[in-house]
């Protein structure tokens, strides 16, 4: 109650009943009587020490009824707002010409009068009444009443009654029958300025009225007491209070005295306190209030320590990649979605990562019956590639087609037709899909529409492997100083082919100019007249150097690792096209490679049964991992584990830091045809079954598929797992959902930890490393200013221009081999039906010819000065040594003049993965 408000006592209208021959009921309303005002509270020096000073009393304590000893009723209202707080919207009973009045409706507009004025008015009224009747009191058996006074009672203003030292009610009024008892009558007064037709109703004081009158004095005494005595006094009162009173006080004291310690303590201390709670308690605490949710969800140190304490923190690289992907998604949502009013605080990515990994660790093991659907796909053809990207299943087959399915229903969403041969390489990035085929082309598809937007030609044999290189921050050494830079500046495509070379392309953005080397779909040209790759504005580099088919590649940042059937592994800089290292050591074909930028190393698996770990800085072989007895056709890498799968029906788990063998997974009965792993599990397919292993202890968790002919491919991400298998000469896709209804926000981590969110966001630095893209854009803009256009085209990035002193690497191998033209020494030994088992057959004849690579190469470094020319910038091409005993410039070199170039022709499309095409040396068409 504010200081300018005073409590009032509202008397219930008195009822006077007169019985004659009929009964007459008269209702008299009275003006509210103002009680003595409470002394205003003195402003405390420390408001925090008086939390109840301005607390709002409950409604039941601001408005309650009083009953006096003689049966008179009154209503106590605390302050002017009591009436408004208590008024409830009730339906009023009414009829034609009448309406029922609400309680106290007639006294709403009556001005309150003081207690002294009410007593004075009552004294004046008594002179008009009879001495042998008490005004307003009914006499039993009486048949008449005293008529009311004919004159209006004057409301003379009188000073308010003093309440100082008011230990008892004021002295009672004089009585015509002598001195009254202490319970004498206390009258009220009728409304000011109105005549009362009936006598006034009396009230008799009791403890309630006495307490109300003495409350100001009592409050003044209480505030003057010392705190210990105040506590003792209140505690004494509470000890004598019934349970309803204590409950009412508790409802006032509990919210007032409650303290949100998380919002009052320093953030460092809050984080330390919360670190002692298990994650289940933290999840419940985040639902207490918005402030608690903001504190719990936004604490990166808390969730990082929780990840570490539960042993699901894997070093920092994968965690930072997850956080960057989440932040990229949020930036995209801010640009594309309308803002949400008063949104809930967004959790830190580490909290989302903890939930994802916790669910991955528990659901895949503890969910005994995950949701499972099966559906036919690609007829009876082999599924050569399988992806799970952005809640889409993408499968490629040797039937020349690519299918897109829904993992929820198994519905075929799109069929991508266009390749003239089997599709053997696939990579996806959001709504962009890149495919490589035996028809020697690279196609780019828009998954949203199903259109083939680009066709890149240039390879002269099967495109066997490809990868999309996404921009990421890497460590780069310049002049002995290691700095962090983002490479590449925009996404690239790297393709490897059986024509013994690799090519680097710029990944076109959605909406950029389309390029199709075969012409438009409406006007197809003869496939024998394929245009040169140099005419493609998206082509960047042609990496030559391998002497046999390129079987596997891996690329990140600026580094590209390629493995070939020539038994070598090469390390390239995909920005400059420089071959940094030729890694010698394998004695037979290299079938698989992985790249580990965090440890600055690469790993390769070969037909010789070994896995080699190479140092990217020195080019030396750090570890040779032995144990497999047959072809190591598959390699997988996670932050803590290197997994190899071989044709000897086993998988082996290695420590990538030390090369130590941790576990041997030996439960399959045939060659391992596919597998994928993360930090918790390994899924492997072989003849007849698909198994799940615990990667940490090497035990079998469950069999997902049994009794089938074979498993072609398997992929998983987050809650989803997809497998392509063969059953009764039919290809079937199986999909498992290991999540529950409460796991809708389960965000999975992609294989390899490479995310494709917001990869096209850096608009300011995208095309500066490729002048041909600039030229294409300038032509599409139809700029009339030729001079300005030419100047923009000539503004080439340093990546494609050689330095003043280019490095030249000379390879002097022990076995000199002459000849100006390479020859393929032998054809691949893969089965012509292109089945997966063909990739793991052993070619015994290859080991003999491959022994020539055993001697260590002597590498001499010289320098050559080359001028920067626009002709070199246009070509953007790197050539490398094709055989031993030949001097080769491994960096980019100027291309020969166009007058001596001849057109390439594409022969009949009869090539398969087992029959590579011999490069022709005709004239190039310009």
Automatic annotation (TrEMBL):
> PROSITE patterns per the record?
FBOX, WD_REPEATS_1, WD_REPEATS_2, WD_REPEATS_REGION
**Compositional bias of type Basic residues: which residue ranges?**
916-926
Where in the sequence does UniProt note compositional bias of the Basic and acidic residues kind? 812-839
| Biased segments, Pro residues type | 169-179
Family annotation (Pfam families) = F-box-like, WD40
- Composition bias (Acidic residues) maps to 755-770
Q: Which controlled-vocabulary keywords does the entry list?
A: Repeat, WD repeat
Task: Tell me the segments the record calls region Disordered.
Answer: 126-200, 746-770, 812-926
**Low complexity: compositionally biased ranges:** 856-870
Name all F-box domain ranges: 259-306
InterPro entries recorded for this chain?
F-box-like_dom_sf, F-box_dom, WD-F-box_domain-protein, WD40/YVTN_repeat-like_dom_sf, WD40_PAC1, WD40_repeat_CS, WD40_repeat_dom_sf, WD40_rpt
Provide the residue intervals of the WD repeats.
416-455, 543-574, 583-624, 625-664
User: What is the name of this protein?
Assistant: WD40-repeat-containing domain protein
């Amino acid at each position: 109650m504010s200081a300018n408000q005073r409590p009032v006592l509202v008397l219930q209208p008195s009822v006077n009943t007169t019985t004659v021959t009929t009964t007459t009921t008269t209702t008299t309303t009275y003006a509210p009587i103002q009680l003595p005002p409470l002394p205003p509270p003195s402003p405390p020096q420390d408001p925090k020490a008086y939390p109840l000073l301005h607390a709002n009393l409950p409604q039941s304590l601001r408005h309650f009824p009083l009953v006096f000893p003689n049966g008179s009723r009154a209503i106590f209202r605390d302050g002017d707002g009591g009436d408004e707080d208590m008024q409830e919207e009730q339906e009023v009973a009414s009829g034609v010409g009448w309406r029922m009045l609400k309680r106290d409706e007639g006294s709403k507009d009556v001005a309150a009068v003081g207690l002294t004025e009410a007593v004075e008015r009552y004294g004046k009224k008594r002179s008009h009444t009879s001495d042998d009747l008490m005004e307003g009191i009914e006499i039993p058996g009486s048949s008449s009443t005293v008529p009311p006074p004919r004159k209006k009672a004057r409301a003379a203003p009188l000073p308010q009654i003093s309440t100082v030292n008011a230990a008892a009610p004021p002295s009672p009024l004089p009585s015509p029958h002598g001195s009254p008892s202490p319970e004498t009558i206390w009258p009220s007064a009728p409304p000011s300025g109105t005549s009362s037709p009936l006598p006034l109703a009396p009230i008799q004081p009791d403890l309630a009225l006495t307490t109300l009158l003495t409350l100001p004095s009592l409050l003044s005494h209480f505030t003057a007491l010392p705190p210990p005595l105040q506590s003792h006094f209140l505690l004494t009162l509470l000890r004598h209070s019934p349970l309803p009173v204590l409950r009412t006080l508790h409802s006032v004291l509990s919210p007032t005295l409650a303290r949100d310690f998380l919002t009052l303590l320093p953030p460092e201390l809050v984080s330390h306190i919360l670190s002692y709670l298990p994650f289940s308690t933290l999840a419940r605490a985040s639902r207490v209030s918005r402030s608690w949710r903001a504190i719990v969800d936004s604490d990166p140190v808390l969730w990082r320590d929780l990840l570490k304490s539960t042993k699901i923190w894997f070093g920092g690289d994968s965690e930072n990649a997850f956080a960057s992907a989440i932040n990229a998604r949020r930036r995209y949502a801010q640009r594309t979605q309308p803002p949400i009013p008063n949104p809930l605080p967004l959790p830190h990515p580490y909290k989302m990562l903890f939930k994802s990994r916790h669910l991955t660790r528990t659901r895949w093991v503890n969910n005994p019956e995950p949701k499972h659907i099966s559906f036919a796909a690609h007829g009876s053809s082999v599924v050569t590639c399988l992806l799970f990207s952005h809640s889409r299943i993408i499968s490629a087959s040797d039937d020349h087609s690519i299918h897109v399915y829904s993992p929820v229903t198994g519905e075929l969403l799109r069929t991508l037709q266009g390749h003239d041969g089997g599709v053997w390489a696939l990579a996806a990035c959001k709504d962009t899909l890149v495919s490589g085929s035996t028809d020697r082309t690279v196609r780019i598809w828009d998954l949203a529409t199903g259109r083939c937007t680009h066709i890149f030609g240039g390879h002269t044999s099967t495109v066997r492997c490809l990868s999309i290189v996404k921009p990421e921050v890497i460590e780069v050494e310049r002049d002995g100083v290691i700095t962090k830079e983002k490479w590449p500046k925009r996404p690239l495509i790297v393709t490897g082919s059986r024509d013994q070379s690799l090519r680097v392309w710029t990944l076109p953005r959605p909406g950029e100019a389309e390029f199709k080397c075969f012409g438009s779909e409406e006007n197809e040209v003869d496939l024998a007249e394929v245009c040169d790759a140099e005419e493609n504005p998206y082509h960047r580099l042609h990496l030559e150097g391998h002497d046999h088919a390129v079987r596997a590649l891996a690329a990140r940042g600026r580094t590209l690792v390629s493995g070939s059937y020539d038994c070598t592994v090469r390390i390239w800089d995909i920005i400059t096209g420089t071959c940094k290292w030729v890694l010698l050591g394998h004695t037979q074909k290299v079938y698989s490679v992985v790249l580990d930028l965090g440890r600055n190393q690469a790993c390769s698996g070969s037909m010789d049964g070994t896995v080699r770990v190479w140092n990217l800085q020195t080019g030396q072989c750090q570890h040779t991992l032995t144990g497999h007895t047959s072809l190591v056709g598959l390699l997988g890498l996670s932050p803590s584990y290197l997994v190899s799968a071989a044709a000897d029906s086993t998988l082996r788990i290695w420590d990538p830091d030390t090369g130590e063998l941790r576990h041997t997974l030996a439960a399959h009965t045939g060659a391992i045809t596919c597998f994928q792993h993360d930090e918790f599990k390994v899924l492997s397919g072989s003849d007849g079954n698909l198994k799940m292993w615990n990667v940490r202890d090497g035990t079998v968790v469950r069999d997902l598929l049994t009794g089938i002919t074979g498993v072609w491919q398997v992929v998983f991400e987050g809650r989803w797992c997809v497998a392509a298998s063969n059953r009764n000469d039919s290809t079937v896709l199986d999909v498992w959902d290991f999540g529950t209804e409460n796991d809708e926000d389960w965000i999975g981590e992609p294989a390899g930890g490479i995310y494709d969110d917001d990869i096209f966001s850096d608009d300011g630095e995208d095309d500066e490393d490729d002048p041909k893209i600039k030229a294409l854009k300038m032509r599409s803009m139809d700029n009339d200013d030729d001079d300005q256009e030419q100047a923009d085209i000539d503004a080439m990035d340093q990546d494609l221009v050689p330095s003043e002193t280019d490095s030249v690497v000379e390879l002097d191998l022990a076995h000199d081999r002459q000849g100006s033209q390479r020859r393929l020494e032998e054809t691949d030994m893969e089965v012509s039906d292109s089945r997966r088992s063909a990739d793991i057959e052993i070619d015994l004849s290859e080991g003999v010819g491959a022994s020539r690579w055993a001697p260590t190469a002597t590498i001499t470094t010289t320098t050559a000065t080359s001028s920067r020319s626009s002709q070199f910038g246009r070509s953007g091409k790197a050539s490398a040594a094709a055989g031993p005993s030949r001097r080769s410039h491994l960096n980019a070199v100027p291309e020969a003049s166009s007058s001596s170039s001849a057109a390439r022709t594409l022969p009949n499309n009869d090539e398969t993965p087992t029959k590579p095409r011999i490069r022709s040396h005709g004239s190039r068409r310009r």
